[in-house]
Write a structure and sequence with these properties.
Structural class: mainly beta
Number of helices: 1
Number of strands: 16
Oligomer: single chain
Strand content: 35-45%
Strand order of the largest sheet: 4-1-7-8
Largest sheet: 4 strands, mixed
């Protein structure tokens, strides 16, 4: 079980729109000076436009509805800050205001930034940086991310893992080449069932499972968002 969430503040160095390196080279060599980033927004619709900063320049975070954004390559950083435009700024005031920040895993080459709007438990926006490399989060796996205020026990594919508050656990689905449905049960610290279903797992896919408190006050069942991604298999060259 790994806990990758930490609060923080930062400025990006320089935006580099580079081609993606091969999966093998990107994840077996020493950490490069460039990381590949994508973004996910919790809600179905954005309630504002968000930006990240490189030096004195602000670049838009281009979210896609219910899926990962396109990948951009940026200079490796230690901290990531998110901003939005100030509504009707007065003369001399900054055009952008700080929204949220997070620490970036120091050894990660690929990062998924998750942005969460305020709710009844979180009064402010939150942003999290997840190590998105295939060595950490590969094919046939599900990544359970606990954004609630209590520990959650996840029973999945015959295994049980405890996911701490602001914690993440990656679990194997163990499906064959045809894929299939895998039972999943989530329990609260007292052992009560708060969620149960069968999740479809693909042999060449991976799935994020973001778990957040229900927006309905007093309801035990959490609100859950699923984000799927297909992982292409590198072609094998024929040897003569």
């Amino acid at each position: 079980m790994i806990n990758i969430f930490q609060p923080f503040g930062f400025a990006l160095l320089s935006l580099l729109l580079l081609g993606l390196p091969s999966e093998l080279n990107a994840e077996t060599q020493e950490p490069s000076k460039v990381i590949e980033c994508s973004y996910v927004y919790w809600d179905d619709m954005l309630d504002d436009e968000f930006y990240f900063r490189i030096g004195d320049v602000y670049y838009p975070m281009k979210f896609l509805r219910n899926k990962r954004s396109k990948v951009v390559s940026v200079a490796r950083m230690e901290e990531f800050e998110m901003f939005r435009k100030v509504d009707k700024p007065l003369e001399g005031e900054d055009l952008y205001e700080f929204v949220a920040e997070t620490i970036v895993p120091h050894d990660a080459r690929r990062i998924l930034f998750l942005v969460i709007a305020p709710n009844q438990e979180d009064e402010d926006y939150r942003v999290f940086a997840l190590d998105d490399s295939s060595l950490v989060f590969g094919r046939r796996t599900f990544r359970f991310v606990n954004l609630t205020q209590q520990m959650i026990s996840v029973e999945f594919a015959g295994e049980t893992q405890q996911v701490d508050v602001d914690g993440v656990v990656v679990m194997e689905s163990n499906v064959d080449e045809k894929g299939g449905f895998v039972p999943c049960i989530m329990r609260d610290p007292e052992g009560g069932t708060i969620y149960g279903t069968r999740l479809f797992a693909q042999p060449n896919g991976r799935e994020d499972v973001f778990i957040r408190p229900s927006p309905i006050k007093g309801r035990k069942a959490p609100s859950i968002k699923f984000i799927s991604q297909f992982i292409a298999i590198a072609p094998v060259e024929n040897k003569q």
